[in-house]
Amino acid sequence: MPARIPARLRPYSAAARVLLLMTAVLGLAYPLAVTGAAQVLFPARADGSLIERDGAAAGSSLIGQDFDGEEWFHPRPSAAGDDGYDGAASSASNLGPNSEELLAQVRERRSAVAAQNGVAESAVPPDAVTASGSGLDPHISPAYAAVQTARVADARGLPPGRVRDLVAAHTDGRALGFIGEPAVNVVTLNRDLAGLG
């Protein structure tokens, strides 16, 4: 016959049983079920939306990368890490709208983007000069992509129309048709751009 638990310990015994049950359900069963469902329904996304080059992972379509050179579309600025786009240091700059430092950065970036792309400073869109909250956003606005199209086409010796078509193919619409704004994934755009030439 099992030993009876003394009355003063019964609340602790009940708490321990609930703790073990919730650990099994929420700590093991639920995560395994969600992971399994994700692997079946969305295997590429569940594995990190990896981009492969020559059989090796070269990045993720969910995390931005810095691209140097006239032949690439450039992402928005990043405050994540010393050199930007550091996944281990995801963060914003924490500079507010009244910050003189932020204002100086925006002015400097606007001049640089305008000069690099041969456009007026007034044509430079806001996402070309400001970082995202995470510092890892792989998207730019269609307006920023349009500013860069002529430069990229010229650097690669491609017809501008072909580059514009590629930008359009990598432009995502609004979520559910009304949430957010259209955006261009720079990582996948540059991957396919590399395949053109």
UniProtKB/TrEMBL annotation:
> Is Protein transport tagged as a keyword?
no
Q: How does it assemble?
A: The system is composed of three essential subunits: KdpA, KdpB and KdpC.
Q: How does it sit in the membrane?
A: Single-pass membrane protein
Q: Which GO terms describe its molecular function?
A: ATP binding; P-type potassium transmembrane transporter activity
Instruction: Provide the family line.
Output: Belongs to the KdpC family.
Query: What stretch or stretches form a coiled coil here?
Result: none
Please give the Pfam families that the UniProt record associates with this protein: KdpC
List the biased-composition ranges (Low complexity): 78-93
Stretch list, region Disordered: 74-96
The record's listing under InterPro entries reads: KdpC
- In the UniProt record, what gene is named as encoding this protein? kdpC
Q: Which PANTHER family match?
A: POTASSIUM-TRANSPORTING ATPASE C CHAIN, POTASSIUM-TRANSPORTING ATPASE KDPC SUBUNIT
Ordered alphabetically, the record's keywords are: ATP-binding, Cell membrane, Ion transport, Membrane, Nucleotide-binding, Potassium, Potassium transport, Transmembrane, Transmembrane helix, Transport
Q: What is this protein called?
A: Potassium-transporting ATPase KdpC subunit
Q: Does the keyword RNA-binding belong to this entry?
A: no
- Source species of the chain: Murinocardiopsis flavida
| Function, in words | Part of the high-affinity ATP-driven potassium transport (or Kdp) system, which catalyzes the hydrolysis of ATP coupled with the electrogenic transport of potassium into the cytoplasm. This subunit acts as a catalytic chaperone that increases the ATP-binding affinity of the ATP-hydrolyzing subunit KdpB by the formation of a transient KdpB/KdpC/ATP ternary complex.
The places in or outside the cell where this protein is found are:
Cell membrane
- Domain of life, per lineage: Bacteria
Q: Name one GO cellular component term.
A: plasma membrane
Under the heading NCBIfam families, the entry gives: kdpC, PRK00315.1
